[in-house]
């Protein structure tokens, strides 16, 4: 999550088909690791960025038994990627295209994917658009049905947040806002989360995202059902699939999780106690679940 141990990855950029410079982190395994394993591509949540995956990427790329390359993306408008002047391009279809183009830039023809929240929605589209790219999928606290109450909470949190004066205050504000859902998190967890979310702009800490992305949520009409992605989810049928759910998640319900298992005969499920949306993937039992799941890819 944080930026410690920056020598563990390379910052790379590529130009999207519509001319934006997009950024990603590339975590290579140690030079002495000789076995060729499929890379892991990590896709963050709606307003988040590649820094969310730092701790997980360190573990996976330095695994003493099965190290592998890990790629973590900044979508357009997030992290070190360009903001898009056409705000309508902040949508799942365009972001899915960016993921495909990132893979082409890296000469990756097949990979395991981990998608947190928004990232998992993108993966459901990718499964229908380019299934041959996907060897296995981990969905972090997301499925084909998004609970309206959870989405409203995200909308309100993103559009009403007070800006902190420093990272210490940022961590304190995050804890104040989310500790009821995340009682398991430590002081260092909150501090790492703050480092992943905020950046300094002219002496003021701000979320590291184009504000237009959060503003988009204000236009959602919650008097109508949130569209589901069951048709897209069916494309996972042939793939190894794992879902991580935070015990206190308001976005992915147990009912949806049950329905997902009914439609995928080999779905693996990991429930993370004392965490909400989305659980930290470098914490247990999520981390061990991911490592075990990836050994088959």
Short description:
This protein is an alpha/beta fold. The protein has helices spanning 54-61, 92-105, 118-129, 148-160, 167-178, 187-197, 211-216, 230-233, 254-263, 286-294, and strands at residues 10-15, 21-27, 40-43, 70-73, 111-116, 134-140, 198-201, 204-207, 241-246, 268-272. Helix 2 crosses helix 3.
Structure description:
The structure is a single chain. This protein is α/β, with parallel strands linked by helices. The protein has a single domain (6-147, 227-294), classed as Rossmann fold, CATH 3.40.50. Helix content is 33%, strand content 18%. It is built from ten helices and ten strands. The strands form two sheets. The chain has an eight-stranded mixed beta sheet with strand order 1-2-4-3-5-6-9-10, with helices on both faces. Strands 7-8 form a two-stranded antiparallel ribbon. Strand 7 and strand 8 (204-207) form a beta hairpin. Helix 2 crosses helix 3 (118-129). The longest helix has 14 residues, at 92-105. The protein is globular and about 45 Å long.
List the secondary-structure elements in sequence, H or E: EEEHEHEHEHHHEEHHEHEH
Q: Using only CA atoms, what is the Rg?
A: 18 Å
**Global mean pLDDT:** 94
* Distance separating the two termini: 25 Å
The major beta sheet can be summarized as: 8 strands, mixed
What oligomerization state is this entry in? single chain
């Amino acid at each position: 999550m944080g930026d410690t141990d920056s020598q563990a990855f390379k910052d790379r950029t590529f130009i999207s088909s519509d001319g934006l410079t997009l950024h990603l982190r590339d975590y290579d395994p140690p030079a002495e690791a000789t076995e060729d394993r499929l890379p892991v591509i990590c896709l963050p949540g709606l307003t988040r960025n590649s820094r969310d995956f730092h701790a997980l990427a360190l573990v996976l790329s330095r695994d003493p038994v099965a190290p592998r390359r890990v790629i973590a993306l900044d979508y357009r408008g997030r992290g070190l990627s360009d903001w898009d002047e056409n705000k309508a391009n902040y949508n799942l279809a365009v972001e899915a295209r960016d993921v495909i183009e990132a893979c082409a830039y890296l000469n990756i023809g097949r990979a395991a994917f981990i998608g947190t929240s928004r990232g998992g929605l993108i993966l459901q589209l990718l499964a229908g658009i380019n299934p041959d790219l996907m060897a296995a999928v981990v969905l972090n606290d997301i499925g084909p049905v998004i609970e309206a109450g959870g989405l409203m909470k995200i909308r309100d949190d993103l559009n009403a947040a007070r800006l902190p004066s420093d990272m210490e205050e940022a961590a304190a504000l995050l804890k104040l806002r989310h500790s009821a859902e995340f009682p398991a998190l430590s002081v260092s967890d909150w501090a790492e989360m703050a480092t992943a979310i905020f950046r300094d702009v002219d002496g003021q800490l701000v979320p590291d995202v184009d504000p237009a992305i959060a503003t988009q949520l204000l236009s959602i009409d919650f008097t109508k059902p949130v569209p589901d992605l069951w048709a897209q989810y069916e494309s996972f049928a042939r793939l190894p699939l794992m879902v991580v759910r935070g015990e206190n998640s308001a976005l992915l319900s147990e009912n949806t999780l049950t329905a997902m298992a009914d439609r995928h005969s080999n779905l693996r499920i990991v429930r993370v106690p004392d965490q909400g949306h989305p659980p930290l993937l470098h914490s247990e039992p999520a981390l061990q679940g991911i490592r075990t799941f990836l050994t088959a890819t």
